[in-house]
Amino acid sequence: MASVHESLYFNPMMTNGVVHANVFGIKDWVTPYKMALLVLLSELGRAGSQLGLLERRRLNRLLLPLLQGPDMPLSRLRKAIEESCPHLASSVHIRLKLMAEGELKDMEQFFDDLSDSFSGTEPEVHKTSVVGLFLRHMILAYNKLSFSQVYKLYTALQQYFQNDEKKSGTDENDMELTNTEELEGKMEKEELDVPLSREEEISCSGPLSQKQAEYFLSQQASLLKNDETKALTPASLQKELNNLLKFNPDFAEAHYLSYLNSLRVQDVFSSTHSLLHYFDRLILTGAESKSNGDEGYGRSLRYAALNLAALHCRFGHYQQSELALQEAIRIAQESNDHVCLQHCLSWLYILEQKIFDSCVLLEHSVNKSLHFGLPYLASLGIQSLVQQRAFAGKAANKLMDALKDSDLLHWKHSLSELIDISIAQKTAIWRLYGRSTMALQQAQTLLSMNSLEAVNVGVQQNNTESFAVVLCHLAELHAEQGYFAAASEILKHLKERFPPNSQHAQLWMLFDQKIQFERAMNDGRYHIADSLVAGITALSSIEGVYRKAIVLKAQNQMSEAHKLLQKLLIHCQKIKNTEMVISVLLSIAELYWRSSCHTIALPVLLQALALSREYSLQYLASETVLNLAFSQLILGIPEQALNILHMAIEPVLAHGAVLDKGCAMFLVAKCQVASAASYTQQKKIEALESAILNLNEAKTYFAKVDCKEQLRDVLYFQARLFHTLGKTQERNKCAMLFRQLHQELPAHGVPLINAFK
């Protein structure tokens, strides 16, 4: 029974430092900390009616985490009790002091008296209650100890109490410091120690009983799923798991939590190592065989191969993932395991999707999953089908019908996580189709929902990828409408909810960089926008290259921008990123305008229009039509430009960003002025006055997003129109405002017809 921890903890399940959780069928043992809890329960029973209702309620809430959690120092236990009932904390301390400074027979007598709690017609504690079960476990574990083990437990109790006395004495001496510098140094040290208090509270010191270990693992796993910010940091959690595995290397669940923890930091080696150890221990301990008979061994093997395939796919190792998946399929076919085969089929689709688009496997998987009663897998298949068909340009009403069918499955089987995914999917689809109002509605629906899963008090619900996606879309929607303060608040909430080391942090990081980039471009600070490109590229190479080209275009480096856009166009066509292809084509067309190659821009715009209509990207189609109208204006047919503007401007004003609305109204004003040249004098005056009104609206939009370059162009245009109409006072006001902006911004010349944006 020798152990390095035997001087402090007696553990009847340890042999050569290794915990054997099932020896003697005992799942718990007596430690000094648990004796302190027994004293607390004894004093609580003695106090009886002397305790107030509020104090008793606080103590009852405190008891469960104390009973289930890991051992803690006596000072922290006393502090926790004092917060609920100071009088009881004093009684517990006195009782422990008498026991620790007394004789061994005092501890013996204490355990003999514990049995009296169950006696009588109305016992203080019911045998089947949480407290009753704890007392019975402790009495049973104590009765099984030999005399030498009882003596070691008594000396451990004395040491436990003396450590608390020493710490209390040190704290009292520290309080007597009068030197100001020493006090300030102590305060700084305390401030540095504050972040560690939460981790100390959750962490496990010394060998844990099986129940304590299971509670610790389940608590951390729940926090990783629901609220990662309240879980231990990856390094601290791994340290605790290593400590736990040191005493019980065959604890399979600890290896699995280590696997999840390694995934948080994208550590492929450690995650693979922990996953393999989990299934090895699962087979060695015989847990699977006991629950599944002779089939248990093969079941572990095939699910081990399937999980390994999923792990490799997550890290982009597609060849290794395919080999592991083939192994899982082979073992599942030999065992005739249809459930495992359906999971394999889903992963096979994901792997083949990396090579070519095919819905055949996915449709087959959905049908089979419904046949075998696997609603979770069937719903995920429907979600993937909807996503693929959205990118293929299917009509929105058909996609929403498919999602409605999957929602019926979710609500029927209370699959709350998939309900969240479905709403996030709808938000993304409406954004893809350019319906920002509908996207905003879906985002608000998800944020106002309560989770169906029960979580602990104080734990944030729904800290999932779905919520991260929806909040990011919400931040971008607010930024597009010029509500930058609201967007900053949403991003601040995202940073708190998903810290930089969490697995979904990259989502808000990308959106944060994109919003900052757009603000810098609107404000004409191209050097700041250029510095943000590196951060965007690190998170999304395609977005980074596109924004680098935009900066080069704004800096009049046309040839470099054109080269980048051509390379990006070829790459996006290869990977079938249609949305980016259209955006690149529009940027290329603008480059042709700026280079005075107006006729070359037309085929590019027509190609973009055909793609946007083929893939039902309504907003991009409207933007392309606006660009075509601008081309017609440049080519000298403003009447035709006005006709097609009326067709495209409504979706832009209904769902567009504020900047796009301003550009559209500015373009309408330009077309009105150009068309008025052939009008009669009276009609021409009316057209110019209408153009001024549209320019006022455009000016309001540009001011909302602080787009100074566009504001300068609008003011210049308005001043010219007021001069034509003979309105000197209004002209002078616009000229003054123009001059102020022109002195702030670099002078590139202000032509009447510059570019659409």
Automatic annotation (TrEMBL):
The UniProt record lists the keyword Oxidoreductase: no
The entry's localization annotation reads: Cytoplasm, Cytoskeleton, Spindle; Nucleus
Q: What is its main location?
A: cytoplasm
- Would I find Repeat among this entry's keywords? yes
Give the UniProt keywords, A-Z. Cell cycle, Cell division, Cytoplasm, Cytoskeleton, Mitosis, Nucleus, Phosphoprotein, Repeat, TPR repeat, Ubl conjugation pathway
Outline the extent of the Anaphase-promoting complex subunit 5 N-terminal domain. Answer: 30-167
User: Which GO CC terms are listed, alphabetically?
Assistant: anaphase-promoting complex; spindle
List this protein's GO terms for biological process. anaphase-promoting complex-dependent catabolic process; cell division; positive regulation of mitotic metaphase/anaphase transition; protein K11-linked ubiquitination
Q: Which residues form the Anaphase-promoting complex subunit domain?
A: 255-354
Q: Which InterPro entries match?
A: Apc5 (IPR037679), Apc5_dom (IPR026000), Apc5_N (IPR048968), TPR-like_helical_dom_sf (IPR011990)
Which pathway, metabolic or otherwise, does it act in?
A: Protein modification; protein ubiquitination
Q: Which Pfam families match?
A: ANAPC5, Apc5_N
Role played: Component of the anaphase promoting complex/cyclosome (APC/C), a cell cycle-regulated E3 ubiquitin ligase that controls progression through mitosis and the G1 phase of the cell cycle. The APC/C complex acts by mediating ubiquitination and subsequent degradation of target proteins: it mainly mediates the formation of 'Lys-11'-linked polyubiquitin chains and, to a lower extent, the formation of 'Lys-48'- and 'Lys-63'-linked polyubiquitin chains. The APC/C complex catalyzes assembly of branched 'Lys-11'-/'Lys-48'-linked branched ubiquitin chains on target proteins.
What is this protein identified as? Anaphase-promoting complex subunit 5
According to its UniProt entry, this protein's organism is Anser cygnoides
Gene name tied to this protein = ANAPC5
